[in-house]
């Protein structure tokens, strides 16, 4: 029975938009290539299949477009890749509690459908890309407990649907924006960034003043 379903799914995949499906599979496989996966959670990721929808930890919609990547707590190490930005229908990018290093690629700003970006508890470095301000649907943005540096991009305050922001436990600097959707976040979202000043409206600190590198 399962085999019949697999064959059906494969046929459907061939009939409907195979180029898109391959692009998404290629993007995910580009990510996999750079990862160390000691628990073999990515073993089912076979790049020769017509689409990645039967791979474990990947969820697709009825048109075989990737909507979720669920790889939290998977003991993965390696880097995020710019190709992930090609997953235009991705709603959940769940990569928390791994050992990811390197930067957050600015291309992740291309994930137009994203509702949740969970990269917390990794070892990511570099700054928070201002391109994340293009994620107009995003509700959950959790980048806490990494080694991120630089200022909090002020453009992020324009995200209309942001409900939960956590950038605590990093090495951010500058001031804490308080305008736009940021008015609702408490200091808890920003704690343990020893060089972060602010919040802007509470004191005499104005944005972008103060040493920050
Ligand atoms: C982050 O890197 C440090 C230093 O290399 C290491 O000690 C620590 O275990 C790493 N943390 C994670 C969550 O990978
Ligand atoms: C502060 O954040 C750093 C970086 O993530 C972390 O290593 C450290 O344990 C945190 N300190 C506290 C008191 O939570």
Quick take:
The protein is an alpha/beta fold and 213 residues long. Helices cover 14% and strands 18% of the residues.
Helical/strand content category? alpha/beta
Task: Report the CATH topology name.
Answer: Leucine-rich repeat, LRR (right-handed beta-alpha superhelix)
Low-confidence stretches: 16-21
Give a list of the ligands. Answer: 2-acetamido-2-deoxy-beta-D-glucopyranose
Largest sheet: 6 strands, mixed
Question: What is the helical fraction, as a range of percent?
Answer: 10-25%
Count of the separate structural domains:
1
Which architecture would the CATH scheme give at its second level? Alpha-Beta Horseshoe
Question: How large is the count of helical segments?
Answer: 2
User: Whole-number average pLDDT?
Assistant: 89
CATH superfamily, by name, is: Ribonuclease Inhibitor
Instruction: Write down the oligomeric state.
Output: single chain
* Beta-strand share of residues: 15-25%
User: What is the count of β-strands?
Assistant: 12
The main sheet orders its strands as 1-2-4-6-8-10
Q: CATH top level? A: Alpha Beta
Q: What general outline do the C-alpha atoms trace?
A: globular
Q: Span between N and C termini?
A: 59 Å
Q: Please give the radius of gyration in angstroms.
A: 19 Å
Q: How do the SSEs run, as a string of H and E? A: HHEEEEEEEEEEEE
Keywords: Leucine-rich repeat, Repeat, Signal
Organism: Kingdonia uniflora
Protein name: Leucine-rich repeat-containing N-terminal plant-type domain-containing protein
Domain Leucine-rich repeat-containing N-terminal plant-type: 22-61
